[in-house]
Amino acid sequence: MNKTALIERLAACHRDGSRLKAADWADAVRDEADAYAVQDGVAQALSWRFERWKSGGASAQGPFSHSPVNPVAGKSLLGVEAEVALRVDSSGAPEAMCIAIELVASRWQEGLDAPALLRMADHQSNAGLLLGPWRPYRELDWSQLEWRLTLPGQPDIVRRGGHSLNQPAGVLPAWFRHATRNGASIAAGTVVTTGAWGGLHPLAGPALGRLAIEGLGEFSFSAAA
């Protein structure tokens, strides 16, 4: 199996909801460069406009990972992630921010247990991005912000801080280098969601609920939003 075939099959999975067996495709993605090539190929096959991205890092020094984001909410969701999204100018500098919910799904039968490179090739298990109201960007005491996630049939999740970089804009330099690596330009107004607060939150019901982050307000969301 090669990257071209995997691009075709993953694009088909997005269209028809099918899933692939990871063991059949392990040789198609040998390194991060292969994974990113598959990401780009699938996004182009599905006519995504590269106007929404996800980016994250394990620490301020990296490693970082990046992916274009599906503009349409997916189905068969595994969970959601509480995030802060940034709207940037053409140089990659943040201009606005909002509460965001990333929808998580997988085109692999093994779900989040699929090998890391295959999950990266599959747009890091992204299934869409739901955005709250925009506010002008400003620095906050991110590590101390209280946030609350309410999901159906589950106790509220209430925590303080939890972003891996303690600074959502910390992913932007690495993301900008990645997004422009092949000579592409960044359109003003591009949206970058910047990493999960508190990790993945599995769903026990439909993808609807409410996320509140101190200093950013509240956002009631559903997968149909």
Automatic annotation (TrEMBL):
SUPFAM superfamilies with a match to the protein in the record: FAH
Superkingdom to which the source organism belongs: Bacteria
Protein name as it appears in the record: 2-keto-4-pentenoate hydratase
